[in-house]
Write a structure and sequence with these properties.
Elements lengths: L2 H8 L9 H37 L1 H9 L15 E7 L1 E17 L2 E4 L5 E6 L6 E2 L4 E5 L2 H36 L5 H34 L1 E3 L4 E3 L9 E2 L8 E4 L4 E8 L3 H9 L5 E5 L6 E10 L9 E8 L11 E18 L4 E3 L2 E7 L5 E12 L2 E6 L6 E5 L10 E3 L4 E3 L8 E3 L19 H10 L3 H7 L9 H8 L3 H19 L3
Helix pairs in contact: 3-10, 4-5, 7-10
Length: 511
């Protein structure tokens, strides 16, 4: 053993210290550092791969151009102007309308029956034709009734001759009675015979009239004017006066009526108008409320309120000159109770709803939007009256508002001019295609697709026009995708972009 070994062994154990714990702590720190570096390397590699894959995928580029999930720009697109459609507010008359559901009813309906029995030998009408009152529709075999008429006329001639002879004898007897050459009893008997024959002749005349009437009934005529339905009997059949089906049905369609119900809260105003002789205008629209079918006016109200529904039935009359309306047809009814003259009106698509209530986005001179709170009034077609910090002529966002915030930068995309108000003045203004609002009052999700669709539609225009109106952010789209969008219809283009957003949302959520 060396001296150094002896010295080490001679040292008390309590004086020997070992730096075991600092060494262990230093090893764990190095391991953690290695894991952090590895994670950073993997993240950088994943980011590089995702970016390269995203750049090579045209659909992903289209989704970026169209906006992220919910229609909002992602990444570095947040600072770019948002594409929107706009329309100006204006002053116009807004009608106070009460919507209802109505059923068309004929003013008169008649089932044509034969008044006599006989074989049907002729039909003088076509199904669906318009018939005039008194028009001959069908003919029965009239020969039996002609024979009965001839018999009645013969009996009348016979009895009339007997009456004439009795009257001659009566005159002769009276002359003899005046000379006291005949008994008065014989004169009285002759007078009774004359009266008896007069009664017989009167009865014969009635029989002739009855036979003539039966003969006339063998020719069936239209009792009212109207539209003919489907025939119920074919030629060669024997019809009877007791048949329940009849030959054909006629419904009067000019004019025609519609029956509908409105809440009884409107009854005082309705009665006031009717008693003052002021017409209450009524419009009939189709099921989709996209086409105006006819215009008319209220003629009468029901005599009682329906307690189960709290409504009162009204009947309106329409001229129906073009025969657009048919009995039992379903229509949407708009009853005009009053008119708000020169009200401030905006498109219904400009109204937004949120936690602060109803509001609009007003486009300012610097192409930014300002939020303006408004209160809405009567709705008339595509326009609604409002009150708030908005003036006539102010341009309001009508499409793409769900991507905006107060002060956001916007780029207005002009759409083709369309009719200003359904069934109204016919004024037109540049606006995006109309959207149907959900019944719960929330903003339609389809609005997020309106801006890309409008831009893609612009891309499908002629080359010179497309280059002039093409937004800068559209340059992100690959040329092959632009050509693909050009070949699509607006509806297919909207569906395509919405699917891309859904795919992007699924990808971003790790799906």
């Amino acid at each position: 053993m060396t001296d150094s070994s002896h010295r080490l062994l001679s040292v008390p154990a309590a004086d020997i210290s070992c730096p075991r714990f600092p060494l262990a702590q230093s090893g764990r720190a190095r391991a953690a550092t290695l894991w952090v570096v590895l994670a950073l390397v993997l993240a950088a590699g994943g980011g590089w791969y995702w970016k390269a894959h995203r750049a090579s995928d045209p659909d992903s580029a289209a989704a970026d151009a169209a906006g992220g999930p919910g229609g909002r720009k992602s990444g570095n697109g947040m600072g770019r102007p948002q594409p929107v459609s706009a329309q100006a507010a204006k002053r116009e008359d807004i009608r106070l309308l009460v919507p209802a559901i109505g059923t068309i009813t004929a003013l008169q309906t008649a089932t044509v029956h034969s008044r006599v029995d006989g074989e049907l030998i002729r039909l003088n009408f076509k199904e669906g034709d318009l018939a005039r009152a008194g028009q001959v529709l069908a003919e029965l075999d009239h020969r039996p009734y002609q024979v009965a008429l001839d018999q009645a006329k013969g009996a009348l001639l016979r009895d009339q001759a007997q009456l004439d002879s009795a009257r001659v004898d009566q005159k002769r007897y009276r002359d003899l009675l005046a000379k006291d050459s005949i008994a008065s009893q014989q004169v009285d008997t002759q007078d009774a015979l004359v009266r008896q024959l007069e009664g017989t002749v009167a009865n014969d005349k009635a029989a002739v009239d009855s036979a003539q009437l039966q003969l006339d009934y063998s020719t069936v005529k239209a009792p009212i004017s109207g539209r003919l339905g489907l025939r119920q009997v074919d030629l060669g059949n024997v019809v009877h006066a007791s048949d329940t089906t009849g030959l054909v049905t006629i419904t009067q369609t000019q004019p025609i009526a519609v029956v509908f119900a409105v809440p009884d809260t409107n009854l005082p105003k309705i009665l006031t108008k009717l008693r003052a002789g002021k017409p209450l205008a009524v419009e009939a629209w189709d099921r989709d409320q996209s086409q105006l079918l006819a215009k008319g006016h209220v003629t009468i109200t029901d005599n009682a309120v329906d307690v189960t529904t709290g409504t009162i039935k009204l009947k309106a009359e329409f001229p129906n000159a073009d025969n657009t309306l048919f009995p039992n047809q379903f229509v949407n009814v708009r009853l005009q109770l009053d008119t708000d003259s020169q009200a401030l009106a905006v498109p219904t698509t400009a109204i937004q709803r949120g936690s602060m209530g109803t509001f609009v986005y007003l486009i300012q001179a610097d192409s930014t939007v300002a939020l303006r709170k408004v209160s809405t009034g009567a709705v008339d077609g595509d326009w609604v009256s409002i009150q708030g910090d908005v003036q006539a002529g102010d341009r309001l966002v009508t499409d793409g508002a769900d991507r905006l915030r107060d002060g956001a930068k916007v780029e207005v995309i002009e759409a083709a001019a369309r009719k200003g108000r359904s069934g109204a003045s016919g004024q037109s203004a540049p606006t995006a295609p109309a959207k149907a609002k959900p019944s719960d009052g929330t903003q339609p999700s389809a609005s997020s697709a309106a801006a890309p669709v409008a831009s893609a539609t612009a891309a499908a225009a002629p080359a010179a026009s497309a280059e002039a109106t093409r937004p800068a952010w559209m340059d992100k789209l690959p040329p092959e995708l632009v050509e693909k969008l050009k070949a699509m219809s607006p509806e297919d283009r909207r569906d395509y972009l919405q699917k891309l957003r859904a795919r992007r949302a699924q990808s971003d959520n790790g799906g």
